[in-house]
Each structure stands twice: as structure tokens, then as C-alpha cells.
Write a structure and sequence with these properties.
five-stranded mixed β-barrel, 278 residues, alpha/beta
Length: 278
Amino acid sequence: MIRFLILSGYFELMMYLQVSGKLDQYINVHYRYLIFLTMFLSLLLALVQLKIWAGSEKQQEHAHHDGHDHGLTKPYQRAIAYLLLVLPLVVGTLFPTISLDTTIVEAKGFSFPVSKESVGDPEMNTQYLKPDTSIYYNKSDYNDQMAQLMKKYEADQKLEVTDENYLEVMELIYNYPNSFVGKKISFNGFVYEANKNNRKYDFLFRFGIIHCVADSGVFGLMTKLPDNMTVKNSQWLHVEGTITLDFFEPFDRQIPSVEVTSAQTVDAPKNQYVYRAF
């Protein structure tokens, strides 16, 4: 019975995350099919366990003598196994999800192009400014993929950045900045004002997920807003402008930026994350 409850709990948790929309804050939405697969398998295994539990005592005793308990014969062993299985359900149910905003950037700061997360997990990468998918490919395959993506945009004189192509466009701009200098661009994001070395720098960011939350990050471009425009952190804007290269003193290097010609305040989207398509 306990196994049935645990497995049905996994099914219900996946269903809840899917229906509530909170699943989008954990994984790339392009992998949604894996969640449906997990839901199906959890439900199937739960029904199997329910059938076993509803069987006769004789059948259960026979299964025990056949060694179907996988060696968990002692109560403390079963308790530990069940605790480990229940833990994800407890975390997923009781721990709230939050939408990321500029407070996360302020707490961590940002670096370029990739910063190791300071949480003691060597497998977790937090990325800043530039989405970097090169860590998932060998060098030649990555270069081939970037060259193929460039063909989609190299002839365009204006880049219309959407939720769907946000991460791939940003990666291309940072990889091939000279190829994009002088081109027009329009995109949405939230404002982050960085004060470094007694200078103020404005950025327009989106939080993005490449595969899952473990490689999520904050991505976007430095912006030069009109002098008469006042903005504040976490304010959402739609900007249009021209891509340039500007020296960013804290990094001691030139980075892509946008000379903004038009900026409008917009409402934050229902789903504030963007995802990498593969």
C-alpha cells in the first residue's frame, strides 16, 4: 500500500506541476514529453502495486519467499528506502517556487561567460549574459551548429528577438559580435542597473533555462538608454535599437550592447523564462 501511495504521489505531483504551470520553472519546456512519460509510468506502476496489495495474503507471502523484496528484509532498510522515495514529493509539495528577478542578480552578481555556482555542486553551472551551449558538444560539432544558426540571421538587418529564439540569438551575438554590429534589434526584458567602479550600467535581461534549472541563467545585453529616460530594477521594457560594441570596465573587455532608440514599458509576461530549442 505504501508503494502505491508513493507512486501515485509522483503521478499527482507531475500532474500538479503541469496544470499549475510551475513545471516551466524546473525544466526546458521542449522536454515536456518526458514529464508525460514519467506520469504514465508512475500511474502504471502505482496500479501494479495496488493490484499486488489487493491480492491474497498467500500470493504476497509467496512473492516474499521468492525474494521479490529485493533484500529489504529489515524494517529500518525499508524505512530508509521509503524515506528516499518520499523526499522528492515532500520537496516538490512544500517548497515554494519563485520567479527570478533582479534580486537574484544583485545577490550573486554576474560574470562572463560562465560562472561556477558557489553552492558546492560542481555539476551546476550558472550562466550570465551569454548562453553557452558549447559545454554540451565537442568543439567541431558546436562550431557546426553555430555556423548553421548564423545562416538564419546573417542576412537580416533587423533581429526580431522572441521568446522562442531569445537564447540562440543572444548566443550568436556574443559569439560573433562583429557580424551583428550595426544591425537593428528589438527585444523584451527586465531592467538591471549595475553600479560598478562608480559608474552605472543598464542591462536588459531574461532568465533562461537551457536544459533544466541546474544550467539556468540570466541572459541579455547591456543597453544605452535615452538620457531622458528613468528606469528601475525589475521594470519590463520593449526596446529597439542598434547593436554596438562597448567597453565594459568591470570585465576589462568589449561586450555587445544596444544603442536604444525606442523604449516602452510593458507588462511582465505570464511565463518570464525563455528556453533553448535544440
